[in-house]
Design brief:
Two copies of one chain form a homodimer.
Chain A: E1 2-7, H1 11-21, E2 26-33, H2 38-45, E3 50-52, H3 58-63, E4 70-71, H4 72-76, E5 81-84, H5 91-101, E6 104-107, H6 113-116, E7 119-120, E8 134-137, H7 140-156, E9 158-168, E10 184-185, H8 194-199, E11 207-214, E12 220-228, H9 234-243, E13 247-250, H10 259-268, E14 279-282, E15 287-289, E16 292-299, H11 306-316, H12 323-334
Parallel strand pairs in A: 1-2, 1-5, 2-3, 3-4, 5-6, 6-8, 7-8, 9-11, 13-14
Antiparallel strand pairs in A: 9-12, 10-11, 12-16, 14-16, 15-16
Helix pairs in contact in A: 1-11, 7-9, 11-12
Chain lengths: 338, 338
């Protein structure tokens, strides 16, 4: 049983911890917390050992009556790999300490690809991370794009992708972020960084992206225009998406016409925290005109990268070298529909 | 002095009334109201005569102490043209009564093009409405697209347009509409109706559109990808937009990075109701890659069609047959910057 530590038990960290715990070939040894907040308390209730990321704050944890097992360095001694879920830009600063401790490290999409050197998506380039020491799982938006673009590329080739990403302004728990009542080009320059980020895992893909922020917390929404290399029908695309793991076709006509209704559906599925690990593609939006495929999809920004983190652990620790097998195992253990 | 009546003194109607009043070759004779609400009271204070669109509701106006000059039929007798600003789908039902009364009629974008027979945009096809009896001013989104696409077409020709329209969920005063915290593909099918609507005034333009609703009330936002016929530089495009009336280049770097800040700017300009009649194009978003022009723009849905309504009156009543002259005259009288 391989051992995993979570550095940063926040939005992504707590979800990866639960997803790892659900697997049968890896386990969580401990998680780090800087602040003894409700998440730290809940981590203890769930049975996770807590290690302090700032050793000088022990008194804060004592005051909050939250037991700690040691410092972050103590955790490094006990694990094969650390999943770094600290805020963007902090992860790369931790890399030196991982190297010094001799542990492998997974970083999140908030880190720059160039600083880590290798990026990961379960479907696009799993094999390139087998046995690697430091790997970055691409961001929620990039993961969403790869999940649906990769099978289309395999089906019929892609000449060019144009995508407009309508991004949630903040996560549900973030009370200090906006916008409240506004649309914000973010970045206001075109193309956005998302296209190049996709290219870190789908090498050489011709893709241009534009991105804006809007006043919602639930999901990102993507509008895709994909020029295809060879002729296919919409039925071919539907067949492909129906067979693709972690992609769900949803029908607006069946009450799933918005991101709010899709998240309500995820709650009804009994998912932990109401998460939707899959990318939801609106069936009605699929259309091919002049060999160009159009579709709309929704991405649950808090959770879609979680199964990818599990697959990355498996690849880097060489628990599995076949991506399909890792994806199937992760999915089965996380109750992902397909 | 030509005489104008407004049928439906709501969001668009009250703005067109003020814009007509600001002109020197036309005047408002009266406006219709169905309900004696705050807008009716304010119309009286502004000096507009009120005509009841439902004659059987006289007692409601009496109770509200709002004087009425007569019924809608009395208004028809006094005007050369009616600007129909009733809710979408109602306008076309009024056409018969306009015909019977022998008055010309302008309809808004909520009516179907096919039912009216002719659509209008000041820049794209002014001349086709000269002397016409019944004309539809295209919707706020379509007007926004035409304002910037028409000058690009004239500059260098357009091969194909792809546009993703991020639409405001409701107007600021609409308390019963959503979404509050969701992104809604609307329509969930692709392409949306906006592309064909542009083609009712920019004949033969190759355009595909996708549209979604988001939880904001201030403005629509458009993401445009325009394949160009001939080579131009970004400076050529900037020069063109700087010369184009009713188009404003705005800089995110100067504090105009969102629809909220743009509307704040309009208020600071002292505009009536804080309206922005111009289309705001983010300067930073302009980019040409492989002969494809990318840009982002914002559209004030409550007011951008208002100057177009004035121009349509002028064309239909043959007060002016030169579009540039009508546009300049309308703008000068409405204090539109250029």
């Amino acid at each position: 049983m391989k051992t995993v530590g979570i550095n940063g038990y926040g939005t992504i960290g707590k979800r990866v911890a639960d997803a790892v715990t659900a697997q049968d070939d890896m386990k969580i040894v401990g998680v780090t917390k800087r602040t003894p907040n409700f998440e730290a308390k809940r981590a203890v209730e769930l049975g996770y050992d807590i290690y302090m990321s700032s050793p000088d704050r022990e008194n804060l944890f004592e005051e909050a009556d939250i037991p700690v097992k040691g410092t972050i360095d103590d955790l490094y001694d006990k694990v094969d790999i650390v999943v770094d879920c600290t805020p963007g830009g902090i992860g790369v600063k931790n890399m030196e300490s991982y190297k010094k401790a001799g542990v492998k490290g997974i970083f999140q999409g908030g880190e720059k690809h160039g600083k880590i050197g290798k990026s990961f998506n379960s479907f696009a380039n799993f094999n390139d991370s087998v046995g690697e020491d430091y790997v970055r799982v691409v961001s929620c938006n990039t993961t969403g794009l790869c999940r649906t673009l990769n099978p289309i590329k395999e089906l019929c080739g892609i000449k060019k992708v144009r995508a407009v990403m309508v991004r949630r302004g903040a996560d549900p728990g973030q009370v200090n972020k906006g916008p409240i009542n506004s649309i914000v080009p973010n970045p206001p320059t075109v193309p956005s960084h998302h296209g190049p980020d996709v290219q870190t895992v789908m090498y050489g893909l011709n893709i241009t992206t534009m991105a804006i922020l809007v006043p919602t917390t639930l999901m990102h929404q993507h509008n895709l225009m994909v020029e295809l290399e060879s002729d296919v029908t919409i039925d071919d695309v539907i067949d492909t998406f129906e067979k693709t793991p972690r992609v769900l076709l949803v029908d607006a006509s069946r009450g799933l016409g918005s991101t709010a209704e899709i998240m309500e559906f995820a709650k009804d599925l009994g998912r932990p925290r109401g998460d939707l690990f899959e990318i939801a593609v609106w069936r009605e939006s699929l259309n091919i005109v002049n060999n160009e495929l159009y579709y709309m999809q929704a991405v649950h920004q808090e959770s879609d990268v979680v199964p990818e983190n599990v697959d990355a652990i498996r690849a880097m620790l060489e628990l599995e070298t076949n991506p399909e097998k890792s994806i199937a195992r992760t999915n089965k253990n996380m109750d992902i529909i397909k």
